[in-house]
Amino acid sequence: MIKASLLLIGTIFSLTGNICCANDAITVVANTQDRSIYLNRQEVRNLFMGGAQHYGLHAIVLPPNNQTRVLFNTKVIGLTEARIQSYWAQMRFTGRKRAPHEEISESSVLEYLKNNKGAVGYLPAGITIPEQLTVIYSNI
Amino acid sequence: MIKRIFHFVSASCIIFLSCAPVVQAEDEDKLEFSGFARVIMGYLDDNNAEYIYYDNSVSFDQQSLIGFQADYQLNDDFSVTGQVVGHTGSQRDSGLEWLYLTFKPNNAFQVKLGKQRIPFFNYSDSLDVGFAYPWLTLPQQFYDTSFFSTFEGVLANYEFARNDWVINYEGYWGYYDDEFRSGSRTVDTKITGLFGINTTLAYKQFSLRASYNQGNVALGLPEASQFGELIGQLGFSNNANWLNPDGPIEFYQFSANYENLDYFVRSEVVDIVGKSGLTPDVNSFYVSLGYNFYPYTAYISYSKRDVKFKHIPNEIPYAVSPQLDQIAATYDFILSQFRDENVNGSKIGIRWDWRSNVALKAELTLVRANGQVSNDSALRDLGNFDGRAVLYQLGIDWVF
User: Fold this and answer.
1) A26-138, superfamily in CATH?
2) Above 0.90 for ipTM, yes or no?
3) Which chain A positions have a beta carbon within 8 Å of B260's beta carbon?
4) How far is Cα of residue B76 from the mean position of the Cα atoms in its chain?
Protein backbone atom coordinates (compact mmCIF):
# COMPACT_ATOMS: atom_id res chain seq x y z
CA MET A 1 0.00 0.00 0.00
CA ILE A 2 2.74 2.43 1.00
CA LYS A 3 4.75 1.46 -2.08
CA ALA A 4 1.70 2.06 -4.28
CA SER A 5 1.10 5.49 -2.70
CA LEU A 6 4.73 6.50 -3.19
CA LEU A 7 4.55 5.34 -6.79
CA LEU A 8 1.38 7.37 -7.33
CA ILE A 9 2.90 10.49 -5.74
CA GLY A 10 6.05 10.00 -7.80
CA THR A 11 4.02 9.69 -10.98
CA ILE A 12 2.04 12.86 -10.18
CA PHE A 13 5.28 14.82 -9.48
CA SER A 14 6.82 13.46 -12.64
CA LEU A 15 3.81 14.45 -14.76
CA THR A 16 3.61 17.89 -13.10
CA GLY A 17 7.31 18.38 -13.77
CA ASN A 18 6.86 17.61 -17.45
CA ILE A 19 3.90 19.99 -17.72
CA CYS A 20 5.92 22.74 -15.96
CA CYS A 21 8.83 22.24 -18.34
CA ALA A 22 6.56 22.35 -21.37
CA ASN A 23 4.89 25.52 -20.06
CA ASP A 24 8.28 27.15 -19.52
CA ALA A 25 9.58 26.33 -22.96
CA ILE A 26 10.13 28.93 -25.67
CA THR A 27 10.55 28.47 -29.39
CA VAL A 28 12.15 31.10 -31.59
CA VAL A 29 10.85 31.03 -35.14
CA ALA A 30 12.06 32.81 -38.26
CA ASN A 31 10.93 33.42 -41.78
CA THR A 32 14.19 32.54 -43.48
CA GLN A 33 15.19 30.67 -46.63
CA ASP A 34 18.25 29.29 -44.86
CA ARG A 35 16.71 26.39 -42.94
CA SER A 36 20.06 25.39 -41.46
CA ILE A 37 20.18 28.37 -39.07
CA TYR A 38 20.15 27.31 -35.46
CA LEU A 39 21.26 29.77 -32.77
CA ASN A 40 22.40 29.31 -29.20
CA ARG A 41 20.82 31.22 -26.31
CA GLN A 42 23.44 33.97 -26.35
CA GLU A 43 22.94 34.59 -30.08
CA VAL A 44 19.16 34.79 -29.58
CA ARG A 45 19.67 37.22 -26.68
CA ASN A 46 21.94 39.36 -28.84
CA LEU A 47 19.42 39.31 -31.71
CA PHE A 48 16.55 40.53 -29.51
CA MET A 49 18.71 43.18 -27.83
CA GLY A 50 19.42 44.78 -31.20
CA GLY A 51 22.94 43.42 -31.62
CA ALA A 52 24.58 42.97 -34.98
CA GLN A 53 24.33 39.52 -36.60
CA HIS A 54 25.05 38.27 -40.08
CA TYR A 55 21.83 36.35 -40.74
CA GLY A 56 19.88 39.44 -41.83
CA LEU A 57 17.11 38.74 -39.30
CA HIS A 58 15.01 41.37 -37.56
CA ALA A 59 13.28 40.65 -34.26
CA ILE A 60 9.64 41.20 -33.37
CA VAL A 61 8.35 41.00 -29.82
CA LEU A 62 5.19 40.73 -27.75
CA PRO A 63 3.98 43.59 -25.52
CA PRO A 64 5.07 44.00 -21.87
CA ASN A 65 3.08 41.84 -19.42
CA ASN A 66 2.39 39.19 -22.09
CA GLN A 67 3.19 35.86 -20.38
CA THR A 68 5.27 34.57 -23.31
CA ARG A 69 7.32 37.77 -23.23
CA VAL A 70 7.84 37.46 -19.47
CA LEU A 71 8.98 33.87 -20.00
CA PHE A 72 11.30 34.87 -22.84
CA ASN A 73 12.82 37.70 -20.77
CA THR A 74 13.35 35.35 -17.86
CA LYS A 75 14.62 32.25 -19.68
CA VAL A 76 16.49 33.72 -22.63
CA ILE A 77 17.34 37.40 -22.13
CA GLY A 78 18.00 37.00 -18.41
CA LEU A 79 16.87 40.51 -17.49
CA THR A 80 13.77 41.98 -15.90
CA GLU A 81 11.18 43.80 -18.00
CA ALA A 82 12.17 47.03 -16.23
CA ARG A 83 15.81 46.65 -17.24
CA ILE A 84 14.88 45.85 -20.83
CA GLN A 85 12.66 48.94 -21.03
CA SER A 86 15.41 51.18 -19.59
CA TYR A 87 17.93 49.66 -22.04
CA TRP A 88 15.70 50.53 -25.01
CA ALA A 89 15.12 54.05 -23.66
CA GLN A 90 18.88 54.59 -23.57
CA MET A 91 19.34 53.14 -27.05
CA ARG A 92 16.51 55.20 -28.55
CA PHE A 93 17.42 58.58 -27.09
CA THR A 94 21.10 58.17 -27.93
CA GLY A 95 20.32 57.19 -31.52
CA ARG A 96 22.07 53.83 -31.24
CA LYS A 97 19.36 51.23 -31.78
CA ARG A 98 15.62 50.92 -32.17
CA ALA A 99 13.44 48.62 -30.08
CA PRO A 100 11.98 45.67 -32.04
CA HIS A 101 8.59 45.94 -33.72
CA GLU A 102 5.82 44.87 -31.34
CA GLU A 103 2.88 42.57 -32.19
CA ILE A 104 -0.14 42.34 -29.92
CA SER A 105 -0.49 38.55 -29.53
CA GLU A 106 1.07 35.19 -30.38
CA SER A 107 -1.32 34.72 -33.31
CA SER A 108 -0.43 38.13 -34.76
CA VAL A 109 3.26 37.26 -34.33
CA LEU A 110 2.71 34.13 -36.42
CA GLU A 111 0.83 36.13 -39.04
CA TYR A 112 3.59 38.79 -39.16
CA LEU A 113 6.29 36.12 -39.45
CA LYS A 114 4.51 34.45 -42.36
CA ASN A 115 4.26 37.73 -44.25
CA ASN A 116 7.70 39.24 -43.59
CA LYS A 117 10.94 37.70 -44.82
CA GLY A 118 13.74 37.92 -42.26
CA ALA A 119 11.36 38.38 -39.33
CA VAL A 120 12.04 36.39 -36.18
CA GLY A 121 9.83 36.08 -33.11
CA TYR A 122 9.40 33.97 -30.00
CA LEU A 123 6.40 31.77 -29.25
CA PRO A 124 5.41 29.31 -26.54
CA ALA A 125 6.64 25.79 -27.26
CA GLY A 126 3.89 23.51 -28.44
CA ILE A 127 2.28 26.02 -30.76
CA THR A 128 1.81 24.74 -34.29
CA ILE A 129 4.43 26.25 -36.55
CA PRO A 130 3.46 26.80 -40.21
CA GLU A 131 5.50 24.91 -42.79
CA GLN A 132 7.19 28.00 -44.26
CA LEU A 133 8.72 29.06 -40.90
CA THR A 134 11.91 27.70 -39.33
CA VAL A 135 12.59 26.99 -35.67
CA ILE A 136 15.98 28.56 -34.96
CA TYR A 137 16.08 28.07 -31.18
CA SER A 138 14.23 26.12 -28.52
CA ASN A 139 14.96 25.79 -24.83
CA ILE A 140 13.03 22.54 -24.33
CA MET B 1 35.43 75.26 -43.18
CA ILE B 2 34.66 72.22 -40.97
CA LYS B 3 32.38 74.39 -38.83
CA ARG B 4 30.54 75.52 -41.94
CA ILE B 5 29.97 71.90 -43.03
CA PHE B 6 28.49 70.99 -39.63
CA HIS B 7 26.34 74.13 -39.62
CA PHE B 8 25.14 73.23 -43.12
CA VAL B 9 24.24 69.71 -41.99
CA SER B 10 22.47 71.08 -38.90
CA ALA B 11 20.50 73.58 -40.97
CA SER B 12 19.54 70.84 -43.43
CA CYS B 13 18.34 68.63 -40.56
CA ILE B 14 16.16 71.45 -39.21
CA ILE B 15 14.62 71.97 -42.66
CA PHE B 16 13.95 68.22 -43.05
CA LEU B 17 12.34 67.91 -39.62
CA SER B 18 10.26 71.06 -40.02
CA CYS B 19 8.99 69.81 -43.40
CA ALA B 20 8.29 66.35 -41.98
CA PRO B 21 4.70 67.02 -40.84
CA VAL B 22 3.81 67.81 -44.46
CA VAL B 23 5.39 64.57 -45.61
CA GLN B 24 3.71 62.67 -42.77
CA ALA B 25 0.46 62.37 -44.68
CA GLU B 26 2.32 60.54 -47.45
CA ASP B 27 3.98 58.01 -45.23
CA GLU B 28 3.32 58.09 -41.52
CA ASP B 29 5.83 55.34 -40.80
CA LYS B 30 8.70 57.61 -41.77
CA LEU B 31 8.20 60.11 -38.97
CA GLU B 32 8.29 59.21 -35.30
CA PHE B 33 7.92 61.42 -32.25
CA SER B 34 9.00 60.33 -28.80
CA GLY B 35 10.08 61.96 -25.58
CA PHE B 36 11.11 61.74 -21.97
CA ALA B 37 10.42 63.70 -18.82
CA ARG B 38 11.42 63.76 -15.19
CA VAL B 39 10.04 65.57 -12.17
CA ILE B 40 12.38 65.53 -9.21
CA MET B 41 11.96 66.90 -5.71
CA GLY B 42 15.03 67.45 -3.55
CA TYR B 43 15.88 68.71 -0.09
CA LEU B 44 19.33 69.16 1.47
CA ASP B 45 19.52 68.84 5.24
CA ASP B 46 22.21 71.53 5.60
CA ASN B 47 21.88 75.33 5.81
CA ASN B 48 25.51 75.92 4.97
CA ALA B 49 25.82 74.11 1.67
CA GLU B 50 24.34 73.50 -1.75
CA TYR B 51 24.55 70.18 -3.54
CA ILE B 52 23.58 69.89 -7.22
CA TYR B 53 21.96 73.32 -6.58
CA TYR B 54 19.62 71.92 -3.89
CA ASP B 55 19.61 73.84 -0.62
CA ASN B 56 17.82 73.63 2.72
CA SER B 57 14.39 73.99 1.15
CA VAL B 58 12.17 71.67 -0.87
CA SER B 59 12.79 72.24 -4.56
CA PHE B 60 11.29 70.83 -7.75
CA ASP B 61 13.10 73.01 -10.23
CA GLN B 62 16.71 71.82 -10.26
CA GLN B 63 16.65 68.58 -12.27
CA SER B 64 13.10 68.40 -13.64
CA LEU B 65 13.01 68.45 -17.44
CA ILE B 66 11.17 67.42 -20.57
CA GLY B 67 12.61 66.32 -23.89
CA PHE B 68 11.12 65.70 -27.33
CA GLN B 69 12.69 63.74 -30.15
CA ALA B 70 11.73 63.55 -33.80
CA ASP B 71 13.15 60.90 -36.15
CA TYR B 72 12.53 61.08 -39.86
CA GLN B 73 13.55 58.19 -42.13
CA LEU B 74 14.66 59.68 -45.44
CA ASN B 75 15.22 56.29 -47.11
CA ASP B 76 16.54 52.84 -46.18
CA ASP B 77 19.98 54.18 -45.27
CA PHE B 78 19.52 57.80 -44.13
CA SER B 79 17.55 59.37 -41.30
CA VAL B 80 17.44 62.70 -39.48
CA THR B 81 17.05 63.09 -35.72
CA GLY B 82 16.42 66.18 -33.63
CA GLN B 83 16.03 66.41 -29.86
CA VAL B 84 15.13 69.45 -27.77
CA VAL B 85 15.26 69.50 -23.98
CA GLY B 86 13.66 72.01 -21.62
CA HIS B 87 15.35 72.23 -18.22
CA THR B 88 13.89 73.81 -15.10
CA GLY B 89 17.36 74.22 -13.56
CA SER B 90 19.07 77.54 -14.26
CA GLN B 91 22.45 75.80 -14.57
CA ARG B 92 21.42 74.03 -17.81
CA ASP B 93 20.43 75.78 -21.03
CA SER B 94 17.21 74.61 -22.66
CA GLY B 95 17.12 74.05 -26.40
CA LEU B 96 18.53 71.83 -29.08
CA GLU B 97 20.63 68.96 -27.70
CA TRP B 98 20.86 66.67 -30.72
CA LEU B 99 20.48 67.35 -34.43
CA TYR B 100 22.14 64.92 -36.76
CA LEU B 101 21.99 62.98 -39.99
CA THR B 102 22.46 59.21 -39.69
CA PHE B 103 23.81 56.94 -42.40
CA LYS B 104 23.11 53.30 -41.50
CA PRO B 105 23.71 50.97 -44.45
CA ASN B 106 23.32 47.84 -42.31
CA ASN B 107 22.71 46.66 -38.78
CA ALA B 108 26.41 46.70 -37.89
CA PHE B 109 27.63 50.13 -38.98
CA GLN B 110 26.36 53.68 -38.65
CA VAL B 111 27.73 57.20 -39.01
CA LYS B 112 26.15 60.30 -37.49
CA LEU B 113 26.94 63.83 -38.58
CA GLY B 114 25.81 66.95 -36.71
CA LYS B 115 25.27 68.07 -33.13
CA GLN B 116 25.49 65.15 -30.71
CA ARG B 117 26.29 64.18 -27.14
CA ILE B 118 29.89 63.26 -26.38
CA PRO B 119 30.11 59.55 -25.41
CA PHE B 120 32.74 60.05 -22.68
CA PHE B 121 31.19 57.62 -20.20
CA ASN B 122 28.44 54.97 -20.05
CA TYR B 123 25.66 57.51 -19.50
CA SER B 124 27.20 60.72 -20.91
CA ASP B 125 24.89 60.64 -23.89
CA SER B 126 21.76 59.85 -21.86
CA LEU B 127 22.26 62.11 -18.82
CA ASP B 128 18.78 63.59 -19.16
CA VAL B 129 16.97 60.30 -19.72
CA GLY B 130 16.55 59.27 -16.07
CA PHE B 131 14.41 56.29 -17.10
CA ALA B 132 17.56 54.77 -18.66
CA TYR B 133 19.41 54.29 -15.36
CA PRO B 134 18.47 52.90 -11.95
CA TRP B 135 19.60 55.86 -9.83
CA LEU B 136 17.55 58.97 -9.34
CA THR B 137 20.66 61.13 -9.76
CA LEU B 138 23.71 59.69 -11.50
CA PRO B 139 26.69 59.22 -9.16
CA GLN B 140 27.58 62.90 -9.09
CA GLN B 141 31.23 62.57 -8.07
CA PHE B 142 31.74 60.77 -11.36
CA TYR B 143 29.30 62.48 -13.72
CA ASP B 144 30.20 65.94 -12.43
CA THR B 145 33.26 65.51 -14.62
CA SER B 146 31.10 65.73 -17.76
CA PHE B 147 32.09 69.36 -18.15
CA PHE B 148 30.55 69.78 -21.55
CA SER B 149 27.99 67.44 -23.01
CA THR B 150 27.53 68.13 -26.72
CA PHE B 151 29.81 68.54 -29.72
CA GLU B 152 29.44 69.16 -33.40
CA GLY B 153 31.10 66.61 -35.59
CA VAL B 154 31.02 63.06 -36.85
CA LEU B 155 30.57 59.83 -34.89
CA ALA B 156 30.95 56.33 -36.31
CA ASN B 157 29.95 53.07 -34.69
CA TYR B 158 30.68 49.48 -35.72
CA GLU B 159 29.41 46.38 -33.95
CA PHE B 160 29.91 42.70 -34.59
CA ALA B 161 29.37 39.40 -32.81
CA ARG B 162 31.91 36.60 -32.53
CA ASN B 163 30.77 33.42 -30.79
CA ASP B 164 29.25 34.62 -27.51
CA TRP B 165 31.00 38.00 -27.63
CA VAL B 166 29.53 41.26 -28.91
CA ILE B 167 32.17 43.83 -29.74
CA ASN B 168 31.44 47.49 -30.40
CA TYR B 169 33.88 50.14 -31.62
CA GLU B 170 33.00 53.83 -31.66
CA GLY B 171 34.95 56.91 -32.64
CA TYR B 172 34.10 60.59 -32.97
CA TRP B 173 35.75 63.81 -34.04
CA GLY B 174 34.59 67.40 -33.90
CA TYR B 175 34.67 70.61 -31.91
CA TYR B 176 32.97 72.35 -29.02
CA ASP B 177 32.37 76.10 -28.89
CA ASP B 178 30.10 77.16 -26.07
CA GLU B 179 30.17 78.03 -22.40
CA PHE B 180 30.16 75.55 -19.57
CA ARG B 181 29.24 76.00 -15.96
CA SER B 182 31.60 74.64 -13.38
CA GLY B 183 30.16 75.25 -9.94
CA SER B 184 29.94 79.03 -9.50
CA ARG B 185 31.83 79.82 -12.73
CA THR B 186 30.62 80.13 -16.29
CA VAL B 187 33.50 79.96 -18.73
CA ASP B 188 33.56 80.44 -22.50
CA THR B 189 35.20 77.34 -23.85
CA LYS B 190 36.51 76.27 -27.23
CA ILE B 191 37.78 72.77 -27.84
CA THR B 192 39.33 71.91 -31.15
CA GLY B 193 40.69 68.57 -32.26
CA LEU B 194 38.14 66.92 -30.00
CA PHE B 195 38.18 63.21 -30.64
CA GLY B 196 37.65 59.95 -28.83
CA ILE B 197 37.51 56.22 -29.30
CA ASN B 198 35.80 53.64 -27.18
CA THR B 199 35.17 49.94 -27.28
CA THR B 200 32.60 47.83 -25.48
CA LEU B 201 32.97 44.09 -25.04
CA ALA B 202 29.91 42.18 -23.92
CA TYR B 203 30.06 38.52 -22.91
CA LYS B 204 26.87 36.94 -21.59
CA GLN B 205 25.85 39.08 -18.59
CA PHE B 206 29.19 40.93 -18.39
CA SER B 207 30.24 44.09 -20.21
CA LEU B 208 33.46 46.06 -20.26
CA ARG B 209 34.00 49.50 -21.76
CA ALA B 210 37.17 51.49 -22.25
CA SER B 211 37.49 54.92 -23.81
CA TYR B 212 40.08 57.55 -24.60
CA ASN B 213 39.10 61.15 -25.36
CA GLN B 214 41.17 64.25 -25.96
CA GLY B 215 40.90 67.86 -27.09
CA ASN B 216 42.77 71.15 -27.16
CA VAL B 217 41.00 73.40 -24.69
CA ALA B 218 40.95 77.20 -24.83
CA LEU B 219 39.29 78.65 -21.73
CA GLY B 220 37.92 82.20 -21.78
CA LEU B 221 39.66 83.49 -18.67
CA PRO B 222 40.97 86.88 -19.90
CA GLU B 223 42.09 88.10 -16.47
CA ALA B 224 44.29 85.06 -15.96
CA SER B 225 45.69 85.34 -19.52
CA GLN B 226 46.49 89.05 -19.20
CA PHE B 227 48.07 88.64 -15.80
CA GLY B 228 50.06 85.67 -17.11
CA GLU B 229 51.38 87.81 -19.97
CA LEU B 230 52.37 90.57 -17.52
CA ILE B 231 54.40 88.31 -15.23
CA GLY B 232 55.86 86.57 -18.29
CA GLN B 233 57.22 89.92 -19.45
CA LEU B 234 58.74 90.38 -15.99
CA GLY B 235 60.60 87.07 -16.40
CA PHE B 236 58.55 84.80 -14.16
CA SER B 237 57.98 82.34 -16.94
CA ASN B 238 56.99 79.27 -14.86
CA ASN B 239 54.21 81.18 -13.11
CA ALA B 240 53.18 82.75 -16.43
CA ASN B 241 52.95 79.33 -18.07
CA TRP B 242 50.85 78.02 -15.19
CA LEU B 243 48.34 80.81 -15.79
CA ASN B 244 48.01 79.97 -19.48
CA PRO B 245 44.45 78.62 -19.64
CA ASP B 246 44.95 76.86 -22.98
CA GLY B 247 46.20 73.32 -23.37
CA PRO B 248 45.28 69.72 -24.14
CA ILE B 249 43.10 67.59 -21.92
CA GLU B 250 42.84 63.78 -21.94
CA PHE B 251 40.21 61.40 -20.53
CA TYR B 252 40.86 57.71 -19.83
CA GLN B 253 37.75 55.76 -18.86
CA PHE B 254 37.14 52.14 -17.92
CA SER B 255 33.90 50.48 -16.92
CA ALA B 256 32.93 46.97 -15.78
CA ASN B 257 29.33 45.81 -15.35
CA TYR B 258 27.47 42.64 -14.55
CA GLU B 259 23.72 42.08 -14.47
CA ASN B 260 21.27 39.22 -14.30
CA LEU B 261 17.64 38.78 -13.30
CA ASP B 262 18.38 39.33 -9.62
CA TYR B 263 21.44 41.56 -9.28
CA PHE B 264 23.58 44.17 -10.98
CA VAL B 265 27.00 45.62 -10.42
CA ARG B 266 27.99 48.78 -12.28
CA SER B 267 31.27 50.59 -12.01
CA GLU B 268 33.27 53.23 -13.85
CA VAL B 269 36.62 54.89 -13.27
CA VAL B 270 38.11 57.89 -15.06
CA ASP B 271 41.44 59.65 -15.06
CA ILE B 272 41.41 63.17 -16.52
CA VAL B 273 44.74 64.77 -17.24
CA GLY B 274 44.87 68.51 -17.91
CA LYS B 275 48.14 69.87 -19.30
CA SER B 276 47.52 73.53 -18.47
CA GLY B 277 47.84 74.82 -14.90
CA LEU B 278 44.23 75.94 -14.71
CA THR B 279 42.91 72.53 -15.79
CA PRO B 280 43.12 70.05 -12.92
CA ASP B 281 43.84 66.34 -12.90
CA VAL B 282 40.70 64.49 -11.84
CA ASN B 283 40.41 60.90 -10.64
CA SER B 284 36.94 59.62 -9.95
CA PHE B 285 35.03 56.39 -9.78
CA TYR B 286 31.79 54.84 -8.67
CA VAL B 287 30.61 51.35 -7.87
CA SER B 288 26.96 50.45 -7.46
CA LEU B 289 25.23 47.23 -6.43
CA GLY B 290 21.56 46.57 -7.08
CA TYR B 291 18.98 43.94 -6.25
CA ASN B 292 15.96 43.38 -8.54
CA PHE B 293 12.65 42.21 -7.16
CA TYR B 294 10.47 43.23 -10.07
CA PRO B 295 8.88 45.73 -10.31
CA TYR B 296 11.31 47.15 -7.72
CA THR B 297 15.07 47.69 -7.83
CA ALA B 298 16.98 48.57 -4.68
CA TYR B 299 20.54 49.85 -4.90
CA ILE B 300 23.50 51.25 -3.03
CA SER B 301 26.32 53.24 -4.54
CA TYR B 302 29.63 54.80 -3.56
CA SER B 303 31.47 57.39 -5.63
CA LYS B 304 34.57 59.49 -5.10
CA ARG B 305 36.14 62.45 -6.85
CA ASP B 306 39.68 63.69 -6.31
CA VAL B 307 40.64 66.99 -7.98
CA LYS B 308 44.27 68.11 -7.99
CA PHE B 309 45.74 71.25 -9.52
CA LYS B 310 49.43 71.23 -10.33
CA HIS B 311 50.13 74.35 -8.27
CA ILE B 312 53.66 75.68 -8.60
CA PRO B 313 55.32 77.93 -6.02
CA ASN B 314 55.24 81.68 -6.37
CA GLU B 315 58.47 82.86 -8.04
CA ILE B 316 57.64 86.52 -7.55
CA PRO B 317 59.54 87.84 -4.54
CA TYR B 318 57.89 89.85 -1.79
CA ALA B 319 59.50 92.93 -0.15
CA VAL B 320 61.43 94.05 -3.22
CA SER B 321 59.08 96.79 -4.34
CA PRO B 322 55.43 97.70 -3.66
CA GLN B 323 54.55 96.91 -7.29
CA LEU B 324 56.09 93.43 -7.10
CA ASP B 325 54.38 92.85 -3.74
CA GLN B 326 51.06 93.60 -5.41
CA ILE B 327 51.82 91.29 -8.35
CA ALA B 328 52.96 88.48 -6.01
CA ALA B 329 49.82 88.88 -3.88
CA THR B 330 47.65 88.79 -7.01
CA TYR B 331 49.35 85.58 -8.14
CA ASP B 332 48.76 83.99 -4.72
CA PHE B 333 45.12 85.09 -4.81
CA ILE B 334 44.57 83.53 -8.25
CA LEU B 335 46.29 80.34 -7.05
CA SER B 336 43.92 80.20 -4.07
CA GLN B 337 40.90 80.29 -6.41
CA PHE B 338 41.88 76.96 -7.99
CA ARG B 339 41.56 74.61 -5.03
CA ASP B 340 42.05 70.89 -4.77
CA GLU B 341 39.05 68.91 -3.63
CA ASN B 342 38.24 65.42 -2.38
CA VAL B 343 34.55 64.56 -2.17
CA ASN B 344 32.68 61.28 -1.89
CA GLY B 345 29.02 60.34 -2.08
CA SER B 346 27.12 57.32 -0.76
CA LYS B 347 23.66 56.50 -2.03
CA ILE B 348 20.81 54.23 -1.14
CA GLY B 349 17.69 54.19 -3.24
CA ILE B 350 14.80 52.33 -4.76
CA ARG B 351 13.18 52.37 -8.19
CA TRP B 352 9.63 51.17 -8.79
CA ASP B 353 8.69 50.48 -12.41
CA TRP B 354 5.05 51.36 -12.01
CA ARG B 355 4.31 51.06 -15.71
CA SER B 356 6.50 49.82 -18.56
CA ASN B 357 7.34 53.48 -19.34
CA VAL B 358 7.06 55.13 -15.91
CA ALA B 359 9.41 54.69 -12.96
CA LEU B 360 9.11 56.21 -9.50
CA LYS B 361 12.31 56.65 -7.51
CA ALA B 362 13.41 57.58 -4.01
CA GLU B 363 17.02 58.22 -3.10
CA LEU B 364 19.14 59.36 -0.18
CA THR B 365 22.68 60.64 -0.80
CA LEU B 366 25.25 61.34 1.88
CA VAL B 367 27.93 63.67 0.48
CA ARG B 368 31.18 64.22 2.36
CA ALA B 369 34.07 66.56 1.66
CA ASN B 370 37.49 65.69 2.99
CA GLY B 371 38.99 69.10 3.68
CA GLN B 372 38.22 72.19 1.68
CA VAL B 373 35.42 72.54 -0.87
CA SER B 374 36.45 74.17 -4.13
CA ASN B 375 32.94 75.41 -5.01
CA ASP B 376 33.70 74.38 -8.59
CA SER B 377 31.74 71.14 -8.46
CA ALA B 378 28.27 69.96 -7.43
CA LEU B 379 29.03 70.69 -3.77
CA ARG B 380 29.21 74.33 -2.63
CA ASP B 381 30.18 75.68 0.77
CA LEU B 382 27.94 78.64 1.61
CA GLY B 383 29.98 79.34 4.79
CA ASN B 384 30.80 77.21 7.85
CA PHE B 385 29.95 73.97 6.07
CA ASP B 386 31.06 71.03 8.20
CA GLY B 387 31.77 68.84 5.15
CA ARG B 388 28.78 66.52 5.50
CA ALA B 389 25.25 66.81 4.08
CA VAL B 390 22.37 64.52 3.15
CA LEU B 391 20.26 65.02 0.04
CA TYR B 392 16.75 63.50 0.04
CA GLN B 393 15.10 63.06 -3.37
CA LEU B 394 11.87 61.71 -4.81
CA GLY B 395 11.25 61.57 -8.53
CA ILE B 396 9.29 60.24 -11.47
CA ASP B 397 10.85 59.30 -14.81
CA TRP B 398 8.71 58.87 -17.87
CA VAL B 399 9.34 57.97 -21.51
CA PHE B 400 6.71 58.31 -24.19
Assistant:
1) Periplasmic binding protein-like II (3.40.190.10)
2) no
3) 78-79
4) 33
